[in-house]
Design goal:
This protein has helices at residues 6-21, 26-35, 48-65. With 93 residues, the protein is mainly alpha-helical.
Amino acid sequence: MSPYSSHQTELFHLIKTQHEDGGKNFKQISDWLNEHGYKTSRDKVFTQSHVWSMYTKKNKSNERFGREFVPCFKSISIDVIDSLPNTDLSNLG
């Protein structure tokens, strides 16, 4: 997974804040970004689809890679096998 650039991180933060805290829809956010001179990572103007895609993909990525797993051991056993060679010296004769 390639990390987000600082530009992409800033854009995601703006989108997330405006959508979750400001209650704006993706069309309103794309308009706001364009009015304030922001461009996509490929130097294009924002559309509603760009904003929606950035928001959903980064949220899915955060969920997937931000999970924590707590180890849970159900049963553990150790089998000890005598693996020493036969040391009976009486056969050496």
